[in-house]
Amino acid sequence: MRKEILRDNLDRVIWNIEQARVEVSEHHIVKLVAVGKYSDEESIKTLYELGQRAFGENQVQQLESRMKNLSSLPIEWQMIGNLQSNKINKLIELRPTLLQSLSSLKLAKALNKRLEEKEQTMSALLQINSANEESKSGVSSQEAIDIYQQIKEEFPNIKLKGVMSIGALSSDIKEVQKSFEITHSIYEKLQKDDATICSMGMSSDYELAIKCGSNLVRIGSKIFK
Ligand SMILES: *Cc1c(COP(=O)(O)O)cnc(C)c1O
Fold first, then answer.
1. Whole-model pTM over 0.70
2. What is the pLDDT of residues 207-220, one digit of tens each?
3. HSE-up (13 A, CA, CB side) for residue 147
4. Which of 14, 18, 196, 215 has its CA at a distance of 20 to 30 angstroms from the CA of residue 203?
């Protein structure tokens, strides 16, 4: 039965997170955000019944329909995918708990302008392209600290809470680890600027990400497939 499969998957992921996080420290708490993009609303509902509360979507349209259809559940919804500028207004209307994928100064400027007009704020993470991959969005690791501070100073309707990164797309574990370490060192430098979230790690690399200091993992296929 589907519910049994989801329960097993969730239990396994939680167990693995637990193993990895106590290796860092007993006080190192890691949040799990379940990514529903390969799945359906029924499975999200089942996962909610199993105790999962935070869910991420990578498209504004899908986020919207799921928030609507599951509005009876007090789910914490997060936007984790590329945000196109023509979807900014829609995202603001949806009031997600967190936008994880604030990927450029230009996007921050446009988002802040619309937030100001609507007298709203939005919590966000600065996305860092720490492996310098062309296929990925995000600011470069060299510019990340300056851009973070600039957003904080100039765009007050965006409440920056930390950083997000996707691990290097490589079969070489050392490359992946290096990309996590770069992101984590930027996160550490931003703690004086109130950064509290270091979002790194997906199905294929979340244990490594946690050992590199991640405190939020985004997991899709290992839970829903
Ligand atoms: C899809 C996605 C995930 C989850 O991916 P899995 O490998 O299935 O765990 C995490 N983060 C982002 C930004 C994604 O788009």
1. yes
2. 999 999 999 999 99
3. 23
4. 196
Query: How far does residue 32's CA lie from ligand 1's centre (Å)?
Result: 12
Look up the CATH number of domain 2-224.
3.20.20.10
Is 218 touching ligand 1 by the criterion CB < 6 Å?
yes
Are 76 and 95 in contact, with CB atoms under 8 Å apart? no
**Residues 71-121 pLDDT 10s:** 999 999 999 999 999 999 999 999 999 999 999 999 999 999 999 999 999
C-beta of 80 in contact with ligand 1 (< 6 A): yes
What's the alpha-carbon Rg for the chain, to the nearest Å? 17
From the alpha carbon of 203, which atom of ligand 1 is closest? 9
Q: 218's torsion region: left (phi>0), alpha (psi -120 to 50) or beta?
A: beta
Give residue limits of the domains in the chain. Answer: 2-224
Tokens of 37: 């993009």
DSSP class of residue 81 equals S
Contacts of 21 (CB under 8 A, 6+ apart): 28, 29, 30, 210
Assess contact for 88 and 115: CB atoms under 8 A.
no
The number of the ligand 1 atom at minimal distance from the alpha carbon of 224 is 8
Calculate the alpha carbon distances from 125 to 23, 34, 98, 170 in Å.
26, 17, 8, 24
Ligand 1 and 102: CB distance under 6 A: no
Query: What whole-number distance in Å separates Cα of residue 3 and Cα of residue 219?
Result: 18
What span, in angstroms and rounded, lies between the C-alpha atoms of 18 and 47? Answer: 19
Nearest to 86 by CA among 55, 59, 119, 50: 59
